[in-house]
């Protein structure tokens, strides 16, 4: 039994409702004719879910099935693998945002208690921070973060520098997807973060061809340029970009000695600016 | 590479695991072996968890689901070509639905396809075949309640088909009729086995 390779550019991705390739199959054809008699059996497109009169509404169409008019803003791919991954990311993001909000509330509460000694003025209390709650944005940002974390460099980084030992401004920090930033600002933060992570790329002698190739970031971003590491091939072009082309395969880990020192100079040469004030 | 005759040969480097291949092997086997397909969901779940925890990826799950989807698209041909493989397929996809969860919820993407498969089994031509009726009621016992929770309207429609089938269709074997009656009552009792039903349907059954 042959298995057709699922190409990232299969017809369903990015297609509009006029695409013949990937209609929601269960929304085509009719199971029963107007007389109630069943239609011919060999109509493989027939589905019980197409007759909207029967069910009264299109509510049976699950939102996770991206029908052409559906609310799925993220992708038009209707392959199950992608749909499930998206659902998983969505529920994860929702869990995270709930957790983050709780964390903020706890911090706020703790701070208010400290400054409740009468003379508290507005400088002491927490500035109300508007959070990013748009699911589409959060999921896009999470994807970008995943690309950065799914690298050998990141693995080495977190092994080498535990979170408690991180020095702000020196050690790269994952951008906070819940904060409000403009698209440009966010994309730039991601870019700089990933560039900073490259300081932890495995050294060239250990087999540079095994370095993970990071795909281009989402959307209209220009291809990021990697200055120093000439062995890494950045073969990406944004035209190729497909939201659901497989997550970058983490290359098999080569046995390596954790180096005692990282390239501090490189790190310092790429400072992470705080973009929270940039509009 | 898994040949069409089912002979599996492994690539030269045995230390690398091609999870996409593994997914295909499992699906292939499930279509041949109904006993396997009944529990293959558990194996798949284990592999998915392992892949997720160890490398933070979901290549296996993606390959599995997409292969499942491909077979689903060609299910009429599958049923025509091999009724046994068709039954195995339905058993398998229902088992996957049962075991594979996303953040503790069943996969939404599978709800409609599973319903479609069950509806197919509830068609008159399928009801006339005992193996298909048997498959249908087995799946409903295993996942009916969950499926109904995800989307209840199709379940009503499905059961109305089953009642029609039970009452109106000729050519149903008495075993098929019994199976249908039992599942209709089972659902009516909120997907639970009542004492009366137990007595009626199962007290005469010899092991």
UniProtKB/TrEMBL annotation, chain A:
Domain of life: Eukaryota
InterPro entries: SLBP1/SLBP2 (IPR026502), SLBP_RNA_bind (IPR029344), SLBP_RNA_bind_sf (IPR038294)
Entry's family note: Belongs to the SLBP family.
The protein, known as: Stem-loop histone mRNA binding protein
Residue stretches of biased makeup (Polar residues): 55-67, 225-248
Region (Disordered): 1-81, 222-248
GO biological process: cap-dependent translational initiation; mRNA 3'-end processing by stem-loop binding and cleavage; mRNA transport
Residues of the signal peptide: none
Pfam family, one: SLBP_RNA_bind
GO MF terms held by the record: histone pre-mRNA stem-loop binding; identical protein binding; mRNA binding
Gene3D superfamilies membership: Histone RNA hairpin-binding protein RNA-binding domain (1.10.8.1120)
Keywords: RNA-binding
Cellular compartments per GO CC: cytosol; histone mRNA stem-loop binding complex; histone pre-mRNA 3'end processing complex; nucleolus; nucleoplasm
From TrEMBL, chain B:
Pfam families per the UniProt record, alphabetical: MIF4G
Alphabetical list of Gene3D superfamilies matching this protein: 1.25.40.180
InterPro entries (alphabetical): ARM-type_fold (IPR016024), MIF4G-like_typ-3 (IPR003890), mRNA_TranslReg/HistoneTransl (IPR051367)
Subcellular location: Cytoplasm; Nucleus
GO molecular function term, any single one: RNA binding
Highest taxon of the lineage: Eukaryota
Any coiled-coil regions, as ranges: none
The keyword Transcription is annotated on this UniProt entry: no
GO cellular component terms attached to this protein's record: cytosol; nucleus
MIF4G domain residues: 16-188
GO biological process, one term: regulation of translational initiation
Family: Belongs to the MIF4GD family.
Assembly with partners or alone: Interacts with eif4g1, eif4g2 and slbp; probably tethered by SLBP to the 3'-end of mRNAs ending with the histone stem-loop, it also interacts with eif4g1 which is bound to their 5'-end.
Function, in words: Functions in replication-dependent translation of histone mRNAs which differ from other eukaryotic mRNAs in that they do not end with a poly-A tail but a stem-loop. May participate in circularizing those mRNAs specifically enhancing their translation.
Name recorded for this polypeptide: MIF4G domain containing
Organism listed in the record: Chrysemys picta bellii (Western painted turtle)
Organism taxonomic ancestry: Eukaryota, Metazoa, Chordata, Craniata, Vertebrata
Encoding gene per record: MIF4GD
């Amino acid at each position: 039994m042959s298995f057709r390779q699922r190409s990232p550019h299969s017809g369903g991705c990015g297609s509009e409702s006029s695409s013949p390739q990937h209609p929601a199959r269960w929304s085509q054809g009719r199971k029963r004719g107007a007389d109630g008699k069943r239609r011919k059996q060999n109509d493989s497109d027939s589905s019980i879910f197409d007759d909207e009169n029967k069910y009264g509404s299109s509510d049976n169409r699950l939102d996770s099935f991206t029908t052409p008019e559906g609310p799925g803003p993220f992708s038009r791919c209707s392959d199950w693998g992608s749909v499930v991954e998206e659902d998983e990311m969505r529920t994860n993001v929702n869990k995270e945002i709930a957790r983050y909000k709780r964390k903020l509330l706890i911090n706020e509460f703790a701070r208010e208690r400290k400054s409740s000694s009468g003379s508290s003025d507005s400088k002491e209390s927490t500035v109300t921070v508007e959070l990013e709650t748009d699911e589409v944005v959060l999921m896009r940002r999470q994807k970008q973060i995943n690309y950065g974390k799914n690298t050998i460099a990141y693995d080495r980084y977190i092994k080498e520098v535990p979170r408690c030992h991180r020095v702000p401004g020196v050690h790269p920090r994952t951008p906070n997807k819940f904060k409000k930033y403009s698209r440009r600002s966010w994309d730039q933060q991601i870019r700089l973060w990933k560039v900073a992570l490259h300081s932890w790329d495995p050294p060239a002698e250990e087999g540079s061809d095994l370095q993970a190739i990071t795909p281009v970031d989402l959307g209209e971003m220009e291809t990021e340029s990697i200055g120093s590491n000439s062995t890494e091939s950045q073969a990406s072009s944004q035209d190729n970009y497909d939201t659901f082309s497989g997550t970058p395969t983490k290359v098999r880990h080569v046995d390596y000695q954790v180096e005692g020192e990282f390239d501090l100079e490189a790190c310092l040469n790429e400072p992470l600016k705080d973009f929270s004030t940039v509009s | 590479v898994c040949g069409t005759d089912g002979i599996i040969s492994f690539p030269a480097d045995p230390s690398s695991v091609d999870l996409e291949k593994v997914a295909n092997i499992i699906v292939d086997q499930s279509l041949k072996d109904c006993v396997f397909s009944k529990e293959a969901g558990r194996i798949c779940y284990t592999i998915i968890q392992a892949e997720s925890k160890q490398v933070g990826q979901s290549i296996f799950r993606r390959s599995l689901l997409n292969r499942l989807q491909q077979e689903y698209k060609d299910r009429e041909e599958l049923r025509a070509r091999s009724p046994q493989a068709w039954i195995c397929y339905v058993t398998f996809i229902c088992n996957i639905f049962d075991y594979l969860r996303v953040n503790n919820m069943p996969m939404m993407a599978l709800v409609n396809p599973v319903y479609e498969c069950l509806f197919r089994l509830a068609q008159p031509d399928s009801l006339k075949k005992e193996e298909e009726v048997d498959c249908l009621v087995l799946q409903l016992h295993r996942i009916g309640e969950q499926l109904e929770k995800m989307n209840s309207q199709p379940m009503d429609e499905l059961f109305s088909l089953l009642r029609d089938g039970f009452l109106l269709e000729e050519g149903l074997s008495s075993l098929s009729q019994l199976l249908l009656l039992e599942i209709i009552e089972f659902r009516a009792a909120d997907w639970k086995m009542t004492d009366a039903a137990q007595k009626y349907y199962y007290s005469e059954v010899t092991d």
